Amino acid sequence: MELIKVPGKVKEANILEPMTREDFLQYACQLTLDPNTAHQCLCLSEGNRELTCVEEIQSYPGRPERFEYQAQVLCREGLSGTLLLGG
After folding, report:
1. Domain boundaries, the chain
2. Where is the SPRY-associated domain (predicted)?
3. pTM
4. Burial of 38: CB neighbours in 10 Å, binned 0-12, 13-18, 19+
5. Mind listing the pLDDT tens digit for each residue in 34-87?
6. Distance CA 7, CA 83 (A)
């Protein structure tokens, strides 16, 4: 286990090395992407759970919360708890 310094409110973080795919998956969760925030070069699919960066601009309606300058999108769900990398 490696201990590192992290800027901001977090002073230290434990970085755990994942051993298997299952180590990663035990911390996985289903997230739904918020189409109201998606940049126009991002195409959402599979019930807003997958996205693809495309060259063709998507015709999303203008919204104040939409990202305009970077290809970004927010999730509808919030995340909380301990951040563990690996298992």
Report:
1. 28-77
2. 28-80
3. 0.64
4. buried
5. 999 999 999 999 999 999 999 999 999 999 999 999 999 999 998 776 655 544
6. 15
